[in-house]
Amino acid sequence: MLRILRHALRKHVRVQLMEQEEVVRLFFPIHKWEGLQELHKKTRHLPQSHLFQLNMPDNVSEYFGAHVAAYFHFYNAFTRWLVIPAVFSAAFPFVRPHIPTHEAHRLDSCFGGFLCIWTTVFLARMKHTMNEKLLRWGMGESVQNVTPVRKNFKDELRGSCSENLRNLLHWTLVILFLSETVFFSRFIANWRGELFENPDGMTFGMQNTDAAKYFKYLVTANIKVVDAV
Asked: Domain containing 122: what range?
């Protein structure tokens, strides 16, 4: 309604110029009391019990619009998704004192890898659900900006053997590149461990303790090469 009103006003007056000339002081929507009361009933206990209410952003969108509701949707989804790493991180202080140091380092590495996967999945899922919400809330222009249809997209190929083969190749490449990164990093970590166990030795004309420091850059180089490929 506000967008339609602004569009109609622009045909006859310029609100921004009127504000500059102080013909009007402010231009803003006033609250609709009945709608505000209805929203208050739906989200009365928002900070406590409604953190996990799935339809809460939809209720906000009905009154405040899609832009405000998008923030609540992100906040709502992020809070729910944080429960998983929060449970694991809460258990760490109780586990670490009872395991050896090297096992604690491995546990930290595993948790770091888990967070990388968790972040990737969350961002992908968040983008998908946000586009779905924008479509539901009628933000057509915003959806077209963030989800353009590719020129080579063909709807009739959905579920076909060609699409299945493309998906199989895609995930094969994903697993291949991820496996290469894991195995290469593991190889460098083991090699550096051997160098630290023999600090007086020489590798590539350098003392093992110095060579072990430079070997860390091989991990970065591998990331750059894999990214370019």
From this structure: 45-147
